[in-house]
Amino acid sequence: VDLEAAKQELEEFIPHVRTISDNSIRQMAKRDLMRFKEFKKEGIAVKFGRFSQKENNQIRKNIEEFLVTAGIDSAEKLLFTSRYPEEKGTIHHLKLEHRFSEKLAEGIPRPWRLIYYRARKMFDPHNYKGRYTEEEKEKLKKYHALHGNDWKKISEMMSRSNLSVAKKFSEIKSDINYGPWSKEEIQKLMDAMKELFRRRMKKDDAHSHSSPEKSDLLIDRRKLYQNLPWTEIEAKVGTRYWRQCKQKWNSILTNKMTKGQKLGMGTKGLRAKINLIKRLYEMEVEDPNELNWEELSDTVGDVPKAYLQSAFYKLKVTSVPSWQKKTLSEIIDYLFEKKLPQLEEKL
């Protein structure tokens, strides 16, 4: 597909097409462009927004006719094929053979993707399971912490529809505070961390005679920020999302470890960036999983690895053009060749 030509042609039907990803445009060029042109000949405009009852009926008719033609025995198998791993290959073959994409969109002047999502919502038996229990809400928060916005994966784990879990999570998230941390919130976070570390140290010192208070003084620095149960901490703080708790805790730790010095600012900040780029370049690492952030933290100072990872992320985002399309080694090479001389001159 000639991307630019596709964008120009689609723009007539979808004015905001240039805000859509290239991959989606390629799909629309294949699935939608000819349909849109046919609808135009009939004087029918491409529609967006809420589906009408007539459109819902047409989707239902298209699905039912396709099931008969292809010999697939349920709409769930057709639209949620991954739920049936043993029949997956056969169903995919039947969908291709009988041109499912074309048949689904028949008679509906909308982008194929929107018709497909609507059909999934209409025919998902998991979409009408009633209110979420407290246990389900906790599971949803936990799964989102693990898988982010992968609603397809989360929906399968919870036996709820994609739309249902995404909508419910947005409701849960609406209770989250995004403003500055209050003293009460910080205290809740500190109490949660103290309780966690004391519990862990009690477990570690189960066979020793040291008291929990003394054990607090003996915590390995790495245990202060590695493998922490952030969803549990989020639940204890109550008004903050787990990533916020993690960021705030790392900020508090960094402040303690550096005795309040702002590592990212002034001369110290420049030296820290210079040392980080040089050290990364010397390591000759290809795979991000091979980066030893603990070892690298000594280059900048006594800081949590999350601080260093954040500093590297900011460096590449602000300094490396099209960094998303580059490998780790290409990003580091660019920083070394282009950004490092600028920083050294500034220093």
TrEMBL record:
GO terms for molecular function: chromatin binding. It holds the Pfam family Myb_DNA-bind_6. GO terms for cellular component: nucleolus. InterPro entries: Homeodomain-like_sf, Myb_dom, SANT/Myb, TTF1-like. Coiled coil: none annotated. Residues 124-172, 173-253 form the Myb-like domain. SMART domains: SANT (SM00717). GO terms for biological process: termination of RNA polymerase I transcription. It comes from the Eukaryota. Residues 124-177 form the HTH myb-type domain. PANTHER family: TRANSCRIPTION TERMINATION FACTOR 1. This is TTF1 factor. It comes from Centropus unirufus.
